[in-house]
């Protein structure tokens, strides 16, 4: 059952949390700007693969038309059989500001823990979901908390609902070329010869183009005899305008 005054959270009654509200809250809250929580740890905590599978039993309470309180239970990432933590987010819908995000149970909750970050990021993602004619209910058990009591394991593909995208097939024209050849051709075309890959490429000089190694590497139709290869070298010498004394 929901707590007193709360109702089950659905896609049509959650508060809207945009990226500006979320970034402003993190930047102005000292609990989330310390060296222990910012940077990589904050990014990992807000990732979709964790929050969408760990958060469940979401409930909403509104105080007038201004204050909105959202409460949920989040499964600990490293101990899915442990009791779920309670996280609460409070926002001012009139001023479009996040007032607080608190985790009530974990040991690091007084200094701004990763569960608070994961919950606020989850609310932001729900605000960014495309509109739908159906209503999704979030008063349900999280996927991670089902591992152990009812499930012995969970597959990676079942953790998140990300759609699979098929890569575009390579065109017939460039499928026979190497990756570096494609990058080199495109870089020269757009005039970008200072990118990271082009640093490892240097246009050979005319004299370097006459080396045995270079001539062998560029020969598409390999000469079958020494005489054919010598004739090919003579043709390349004329192309490179190489002069011998």
- Please tell me what the overall shape is: elongated
The quaternary organization reads as: single chain
The tally of strands reads 5
Low-confidence region ranges: none
SS content category = alpha+beta
- Strand order, largest beta sheet: 1-2-3-4-5
Mean pLDDT: 78
Helical content band: 25-40%
- Given the structure, what is the number of helices? 7
Main sheet specs: 5 strands, antiparallel
Helix and strand sequence: EHHHEEEEHHHH
Task: Give the CA-CA distance, first to last residue.
Answer: 96 Å
The tally of domains stands at 2
For the CA atoms, what is the radius of gyration? 30 Å
Strand content: 5-15%
Kindly summarize this structure in a few lines.
The chain has 245 residues and is an alpha+beta fold.
């Amino acid at each position: 059952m929901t707590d007193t005054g709360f109702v089950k959270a659905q896609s049509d009654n959650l508060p809207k949390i945009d990226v500006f509200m979320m970034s402003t809250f993190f930047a102005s809250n000292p609990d989330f700007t310390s060296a222990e929580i910012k940077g990589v740890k904050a990014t990992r905590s807000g990732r979709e693969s964790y929050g969408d599978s760990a958060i469940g039993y979401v409930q909403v309470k509104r105080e007038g038309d201004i204050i909105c309180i959202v409460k949920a239970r989040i499964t600990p990432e490293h101990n899915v059989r442990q009791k779920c933590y309670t996280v609460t987010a409070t926002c001012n819908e009139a001023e479009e500001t996040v007032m607080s995000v608190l985790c009530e149970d974990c040991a690091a909750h007084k200094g701004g823990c990763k569960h608070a970050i994961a919950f606020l990021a989850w609310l932001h993602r729900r605000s960014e979901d495309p509109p739908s004619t159906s209503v999704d209910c979030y008063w349900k058990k999280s996927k991670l908390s089902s591992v152990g009591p009812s499930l012995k394991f969970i597959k990676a593909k079942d953790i998140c609902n990300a759609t699979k995208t098929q890569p575009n097939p390579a065109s017939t024209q460039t499928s026979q070329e190497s990756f570096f050849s494609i990058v080199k051709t495109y870089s020269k075309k757009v005039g970008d010869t200072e990118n990271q890959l082009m640093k490892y490429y240097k246009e050979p000089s005319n004299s370097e183009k006459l080396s045995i190694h270079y001539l062998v590497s560029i020969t598409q139709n390999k000469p079958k005899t020494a005489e054919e290869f010598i004739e090919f070298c003579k043709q390349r010498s004329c192309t490179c305008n190489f002069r011998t004394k």
